[in-house]
Amino acid sequence: MDSLIQYSGIVASVWIVVGIYVTSLFYPNFSHSKQFCSELGAFGSPTQKLSPIINNYPLGLLFVLFGCYLVANFPTHIPTVFIGLMAIIHGLCTWVCGYFPMDADPYTKNPSRSCLIHSWSGMFMLLSFVIAPAIVIFSSYYSMPIRLISLICIIGCFYFAYRLKLAFKAETVPGTHQRLSYGFQILWLFVYSFFVVA
Hints:
198 residues
């Protein structure tokens, strides 16, 4: 069982890409460039019930399992324990985002309580996978290549988060920048997971 859990970070990195694509097939005319990933599970969407089943709930489990693996297998290395805790937080927030859908209109001036919870949870997801690679960067325990990759992923995440803000304001292609911003976080998880299990 442990041998399977240690690969949960890698599996999650692949699952999220495949899961979002598969779910979008059941959402007529879904635009990956103009729409947020969370719109697949938004109130009233054709995939409101399907999206969390394919994406949030299994992904949350994978993140939590990987975090628990790190905590259990590196108990004396505090930086890795904290990275494990960040993965667990990321997983828990993924569940919350699935259980509390966003509003159908991301530009609504009066978001619902569910949408506010979804948004705050999404912010904690973002922070957890910024803190985790930042820990790697400043820990001499890790090799220079993984520390450099962590730095690049944080820069990429913030750059496209900034582009996302501009695109959202201009109502152009926020979906593209959201996927690229989060994509750098998932890339970090994928590379870090390989480092840990190697």
